Amino acid sequence: MPSLEASTTHPIVTLALLDAATDKDSEVQEQVRKSILTLGKQQPDRVLAMCQDYLLKHPKLVVTHRVVILRTIELIVGCRIEEISPSRIKSIISLASDEMTRSKEVIPDWQQAASNILVAVGNKHINDIMEEILSKFQPGVLPHFFVVQTLANLSDSNVYGMVPFLNAILGTMLPMLSMAKQDNMKWVFSSALSHFSDSILEYLANLDKAPDPSVRKDTFSSDIYAAFEILFNNWLQSREPKLRLTVAEAVGSMCHLMASDKLEEQIPRLVPAILSLYKKNNEHYIISKSLCQVLDASFNMGSRVLETQLEALLFALHQQVHFKCISLLLSNSFPDRLVMFVLQKLENSNERSRMGSLAVLRHLINSSTSTMESKKLLILASIRQPMADHSNKVKKRVVQVISAMAHHGYLELEGGELLVRFIVQHCALPDTYQRPTDPEEVTNESLRSMCDNTLHLLTTTVGRLADVLWPKLLYYLTPSQYSNATTPLCKSLIVLGNKKKNNQEPSFKIDFTQEALDDDKWVCQLAAESTRYLPTYNNALEEKSFLYRCIGVTLQHCFNKELVKKQLHELLLAARHNDAVEREGVAMGVGLCANSHLEGTLAKLDEFGKSDAFKKSPSIFNLLKERNDVEVEKVKSTLILCYGQVAVNAPPEKILNRIDQDILRCISKHFNTKVWKHCYYSPYIICLIQSVGLIAKAISECVKKQGYIFSRKQELITVMLNSRHFLVFYFFHCSGQDHERERAITATAHILAYYLDNLTVKNMVSFHNLGALLGRLSPRCSDPVPAVRAAAVDCIHTLLYIQLRYEGFSLDYKDESVDSLLSLKDRLENPDHSVLYKTCSDLTKVMSKRLPQQQLTTLVFMLFEGLVDSQTNCCRASTVILNTLLKNRGGGLQDMGFICTLLRITVLLYYVQVRVAVGQTVLILASQHLQTVINTLVNQPLPYDNWISEMWMALGADPIVANQIMEMVMEKLSIMAPYVDKKESFMRGGTTKVATNQPLAVTFVCLVLRAMAKHAGPRLPAIVECLCPLLNNIYECQRITVTAFFSELLNHHVVTELMLVDVLMNNMMERISDPCCTVRMLAVRGLGNIAVGSPEKVHTLTALTLTHPNCYDIHSFLCITFLSVQLLTLNQENDDIRCASIHLMGNLSTFGSGEQVFKDQIHNVLVSLLLHLVDPNPEVVKACKYAMRVCAPVVGSEQITAMFQNHLHEDKSLHYGEFINDLTKYLIQDFPGMLNFYHISVIQFFKSNWPEVRAGAAMFIGITAL
């Protein structure tokens, strides 16, 4: 298949697209424009040059064709202006100016497109543009319409560049205004004056950024006023509505630049004139904008005559509801009159009037001026009248006003709660179930949705309302009239509650006045009913846990002691003890109950501890095994946790006497040493720790008020330390909190010291946890906290002495190397990283001497965990310890499976230094176990990710290891068979030959040939001559290699230049009968490549394929037939032939499943099939869908196959644009080397007879060129 460079294909594609731009179909034009733009973004100078040359060489192009090209030039210039050369810029300016003014008549599309180019260039090159434009804007001569329009647009797009030119432009323009007789010229001059005025005002407002800060308003005042007189006195009265509006807009902008005395003089005439325009024009926005600018200018210069126009202004503005103008009035001279005017209008029951008044009021509130502060109570009183309106339209405006009031502190005032109630009431509106006939009608559903959103908005964005809404919203949850509002109310309450909880605000806790419940029967029934509902929350454990607590509180208020015991029994019996959340919920419920029923609760717990739940009861008919210890311990875990909750919730004056005999005695009774030994991280140990913690908390609170002797304290500590329970501190060794790590390591040091002091060894045994403990603790020797570093060294020192005791050494034995660790503590006080890591290395040397061989692998695995520690120092220390350890002891490792674990962990490494150090780890292992390391790396999935590549680079950086690797690889390649025998299945038996290096060889040959075709063309004839005899070699691998070489050679035009086509074509035909399937496929691929390398030989090839004697077997015949069909009939204009040939290709492809040669031929015609999916003949479209769906498995992409089979059904419609867009992503992803071939193939369709196909071709080019 072809692999042409982009620099070769882009000019060809661009020229073809420029030709296609003449298409009369608008969709084709749009697709062509998009595709040229895509190419222009990649090579702007080249594409612009081609567009310019095209226009110059074709002066008689139709306007639509020229417009497409001009618009494309504008877009390229707009997005790539910085990359275009100065010479190209000047030529583009000259071209656009000529195109714009060539015709004296106004031809909007053509001339506007050219004008837009000048504006786009003017954003960067204003001086060059003005030099060209001003040459066509001369005094005494009425300019071209689009010259004035371009100047106007330039003043908008490049304010700082244009304003310095405007004084001269205005001087030239003023005499021209009297010369303008036609409405279109009056319009363009008015528009230009409006744009000029706006640009000058923007320039003056940003003088600190302006290139010339000396510019002043009075520079332009006289010219602007002279123009104003012409526009206001003559043109504003025009009968043409469009001109009147443009003049009004210009007059508004010009007022800001007029001298104050001149403006004051014109106000009594100007305001009524603009107000009168409301009756003459339906487009009110521009009129209101102009009026706003007039008022703004009047206020700025302190007009005294404006008050005479106030009544007329208020009436007109209320009708138009122009907020900006009202804001200007409010913020200046007449705030009181304006507010009273609006509030009086609220009393009018007319729907339209009231809606307008509410809209104005909302704007007044949002203006947030000091004047409005004194009006808040008056506005709160006035809003009640429209709140009672029955119209949903009015209610919608009321909600908007309430939202504005909430943001400005109205709802905190007296009467604000009524506004909250209004919102909640309308959150509870019922459905109307009717479709509105009037599009402006506001249904209950839409109003309710608006109120829901408003309540949420007030909750989340108006912080000051938190104390207004909390807890008042709770009161709306229970009344039935607000039931439809439950969801929004709960959402808001959750947000408010979480905010107050997180901020620890005292108001979070709501002190509802508790009313005594005298009806004990009702309380007991509530507890029983709540217990009965527990199973319904099995899939919502947090809610179930909450219900347990509710039941506990309910039982506190229950006086029936027997019912309390019964409900406690139900709770303990029905609980799912294997779930931590439910265990904790049950325990908290039981503990809360103990607040009022301590005696009964302890009695029930003791009774439950002796029940059948703790016995090993045999299963049905004794056929199944008895319940194991671990299942029983899950129930015991709940019971142990219950005792802790009882201790912390019981009355302080009663609990101390119960701690030793009733609580700790029962906990000790449920303690199972046999299970403990295997439960370092089980719920069992967690529940015990939690329970002991709760008991300690209860004792510490009580002893503040009364004395207490903790008689079982020593026993409890012994139990906690027994069977290596210090491992629970593992949870906190790697905490991100400094104080937690310090406490955990310090506690571990004390526990280990205590363990050593009390250790008695009768027989020499192995300390099985030494490797795990050292691996966990040693990285902490470089912890950022000095106290943690010191405690970690103490832990390691003690652990090594524990190991010596297990090995049989006496209690008073001293080991010099182990004791040397204590001297390292002084060095660890130095925070310098290099000192810390050197100390860790020295510490590791001592550990490696004392560590038993069988503990080495465990230590390595634990150090792997340290690579992702929460502290950077500890991550790096882990690598130092790991590498030091492997240098000293790595050669003795037997089980190397941990290498795969190390490679998996590398994906999680964040710090660069750690990744580099891990590379050294692999290098150290390779120096000791090269074969194992290489095998592990080679067997990683392809393509290698970044981490595996880094590992290879680390190995390659060492010259000795790299040399050994190369020798090993070369040896493997020399002895490796071209295939391996692989068993098919146990059922069928037999083996299958699976290729090894042949695909690699073929790929390599193709790559070499592409390079040779480009750089070594003259040498190819001699090479071909030398290789031809090898096509008959007895070794398949040599025939495959040469056939692949010739096949790829036919893909390049160089074979035509060297006259090698016939030789290669004949050789490929000979290979069609080769006994090797791979050779035959490569031969057919080569014949297909002739269509690209030597297209003039296609007809010769077709005749040859149909007559060649080697095409005797059905496989070869089908391949060649497929090739012939695609070459001769696919693009036939005859619908029947085209339809039949496409069907035939689909049928032929069913014989090519899994064959590469068929895949190649499918790709040869893929573009044609895709474009004919929009063929005007529906039968051809159906044929294409059928063929592509049938060919899908041969394409070679799972995603494309899925797309073809899911979307291309004859009886279903297809959204072609989306389909092509999605498909090209997969083509680019799976077949990047085919893109240039696709581009060359698609160009021929720019001249298709059908606009649908032409548009599809342009679309395809644009999408794939990205």
Automatic annotation (TrEMBL):
One of its GO terms (cellular component) is cytoplasm. Pfam families: HEAT_Maestro, HEAT_Maestro_2, HEAT_MROH2B_1st, HEAT_MROH2B_C. Residues 258-513, 516-722 form the MROH2B-like HEAT-repeats domain. SUPFAM superfamilies: ARM repeat. Keywords: Repeat. Transmembrane segments: none annotated. This is Maestro heat-like repeat family member 1. The gene is mroh1.
